[in-house]
Amino acid sequence: MDKQDNIKHVAIYLRKSRDEGEYDDVLSKHRDTLVAYAKAHNWTYILYEEIGSGESIAKRKKIKQLLAHVEDGLYDGVLVMDIDRLGRGNHDDWAEICKAFFCTDTFIITPQKIYDLSQEQDEMRFDFQAILAKMEYKMIKKRMRQGKVAGAKKGMWTNGSPPYPYIYNRATKQIEVDADKLKIYRAMLDKYLLGMSTQEISVWLNKRAVAPPYTGKRNKYGWSHVTVHRILISEIHLGYVIYGKSHKHRGTAQLIDKEAWIKVKGEHEPVKTQEEHDQIMARIAQNAIIPRKCRVGTLPLSGLLYCSKCGRRMQFKRRETKNGGYWTAMCVYTYPDGTKCDQVGRKLDDAFYKALYQKITKLDEQTLELVDEINEQYQELQALCEMKQKELAQTEQAIENLFELYEDGKMPKRRLSDRIAGHEKTKNELEAEIEKCKTALVSQVNLVTVEMVQKRINEFKALWLNATDPSEQNRAFRLLIDRIVYDREDDGLRLEVLYK
Ligand SMILES: [Zn+2]
Q1: What is the model's pTM?
Q2: Are residues 137 and 26 in the same domain?
Q3: Cα of 301 from ligand 1 centre, angstroms
Q4: How far is the CA of 495 from the centre of ligand 1 (A)?
Q5: pLDDT by residue (tens digit) across 144-158?
Q6: Cross-referenced CDD domains, in alphabetical order (predicted)?
């Protein structure tokens, strides 16, 4: 097979050339051309657009970033208008560019030609090799092989346990679709697109006793609407693999903004179409907007209270008595077979709101368990990392103390170097361990933490305390809560708060 058929994911690099000066439309024309080119070839792409026009690489922020990504083997090719867009500066610049492209077998693609720097017939090869020869090519190539390992991971599954309905195949290191789970997944998707809410879908799944997709303690709670929501919005199901959440720069792991994460077509089978995904996202966006009629005479819980038995939104009814009126919440849903939902309603009195406020402001057991499970490892790592950092600081202090002793003439040079050597060894080991911890921590940054939930709760408290009317109270609830699931049994009221 032609190597070039393997191009799936490219970077598009845009920069004004010297003589184009202030003409911004030149750049946007180039952007249109290159994006259209990538689309026509069915490649996924990430744009790197240079603002300003520094001549050398050091002055061009985006090319630096791009070269680092190329060195990591993140792309099959880099798409540019002309090859000289990449660099026009000095010899060192070109050396850096060659090194990145040549050693990772990354193509340079222009609308006219694809340059494969490792192929004999490419006229550029000679120049590149001449430069590389000066750079001890073999040594560099060896060092760069690490980048190729990252490249080999492209499209491979490296993120632990995959989302429903996928399962991980240890042998192939790929994720595969489980046929039975796929049926359930497709049913979920269809139901959502037909207008069922995520809450209703979770009720439906639990009613049918479909095994929930977690292991351990969480299983006893069955499916939750949060789980359904996460599965529905996932881009993994479109066939993508997301990576590049962190990047190593001079040996330090750095966080990358979510916008800059790299999304690559994976090797696994997609289970939904882009069109379906767009419809899902459109529905979610729509649901986030509160219907206009809710705003008139909003109650604190308008649109937020759901019945645990049938999954429907509960209704509020006003009752008038001799001593004034009060509101009640009740479920009025009738199943298609004519039976009414047997949920018992309740008066929305002070005691009810007090119970709810307490429930919300006190992190409940289930939320904690959920968050805990995810965070246990994270916190252990963090603690370990801090401990190692303390040890490192102590070691560094010890080294400094030795130097002071030496400078004060209280220690002979020979003893100094012996003792320093021991400390340096410890220092290096500690630094390596800290690095490992940091990398592991970085890979988990997108998780919800107890602190995040707590922070929102504090925001809620502040809003709630300052709320002067029910619609402001409603706003406070909506900030924090996706929905409140109401259940009333003989033993009293049970409220389950589902955080956003
Ligand atoms: Zn109901």
Answers
A1: 0.39
A2: yes
A3: 16
A4: 14
A5: 544 444 443 455 665
A6: Ser_Recombinase
